[in-house]
Amino acid sequence: ADAFAGMSDKLDKAWARLQGEKDLNADNVKAPLKDVRRALLEADVSLPVVRRFIARCEEKAVGMKVTKGVEPGQMLVKCVADELCELMGGVGAEGIKFRDDGEPTVVLMAGLQGVGKTTACGKLSLALRKQGKSVLLVATDVYRPAAIDQLKTLGKQIGVPVFDMGVDGNPPEIAARGVRKAKDEDIDVVIVDTAGRLNIDEKLMGELKATKEATSADETLLVVDAMTGQEAATLTASFNEAVEITGAILTKMDGDTRGGAALSVREVSGKPIKFTGVGEKMDALEPFYPERMTSRILG
Ligand code: GDP
C-alpha cells in the first residue's frame, strides 16, 4: 500500500480537460479543479482544508500569464503543485531545533494511545544518535506500567538510556528530574514520552501543559497516526490549541493510509510535519519533505 496511490492517474484526467484551451480562465479551471477536489477528498483530506485549498488554486490559476510553449494543462499542474507544497509547509524538511546554549534540548512527545508515540521516541533517539547527539529518554506514563517497560526495552535495543520513576510521582516532576539528570550528565537531547490516552480530555491536556512548563520544553511534537485521515486534522487542531505544539510526526505512512493527514496538519495548526514514520523498525523514520510528498501525489 502506498499513500496517494492512484491519485496521479485521477489527476491526469483533470489536466487533460484543458486540452485545446489557450489560457486558464474562470470557466475552464472549474472542471479540472473539481477533479482535484474530489481526489483530495478521496484521499481523506478534511473538507475545510480542501475547500480553502481549491479556492487558493482557483484564485492563483485564473489570470496566470500564458507562457509560450506551455500548455494550460501544464500551467494548472504547476499551480496545484506549488499550492500543495505550500500547504505542507514549503521547502525543505524541518528537523529538531537544537538549543545552542549548552543546555539539553527538550523534546516532548504527545499523542493519543496507539498512534506510535513510544515507537517514535525510539526512532527519534536513534536518528539523533546517528547525528552524533547523546540522548536521554524519559518515561512518564505513570498510568501504564507497560508503556514504561516498552520504552525501557526500546532503549536497551538501541543503546539509549531511559530515566523513569516507575509509576510513582507525577509526570511533570518525573520529566523535570529527567532534564536535571541530562544537565548533570551533559546529555544533548532529552526525549520525554508522555502519557497517551484513548481520548483527548482535560486531564491529559492539563498534564501535558504542566510537563511542558516543568521542563521548559523546546519542542512539543504531536505524534499523529496517518491512518486516521481527516480525524488527524481535528486532533492536531485541538492539541495545538491546548498546548501549542511545535510540529508533528506522522506515523504509519507505510500502512494502508490514503495520506490525507499529510495535507491537513499544517493547514489546521500552522505547524510543520517534521518526520514521518514508515514502518515498525527503529530506523523507519524519515524527515518530511513537502516537495517530495507533492511529487508523490501528482506523480
Ligand atoms: P503508543 O501507544 O502511541 O506509544 O504506540 P506504540 O509506539 O506502542 O505503537 C503502536 C503500534 O503501532 C505498534 O505495534 C507499533 O509497532 C506500530 N507502529 C508505530 N509506528 C509505526 C509506523 O510508522 N508504521 C507501522 N506500520 N507501524 C507503526
From TrEMBL:
Keyword Translocase in record: no
Signal sequence region: none
Single GO biological process annotation from the record: protein heterotrimerization
Catalytic activity field: GTP + H2O = GDP + phosphate + H(+)
Keywords, sorted A to Z: GTP-binding, Hydrolase, Nucleotide-binding, Ribonucleoprotein, RNA-binding, Signal recognition particle
EC numbers, comma separated: 3.6.5.4
GO molecular function list: 7S RNA binding; GTP binding; GTPase activity; protein domain specific binding
Domain SRP54-type proteins GTP-binding: 272-285
Annotated family: Belongs to the GTP-binding SRP family. SRP54 subfamily.
Entry protein name: signal-recognition-particle GTPase
The species this protein was found in: Ostreococcus lucimarinus (strain CCE9901)
Complete-protein stretch covered: 4 to 302 of 498
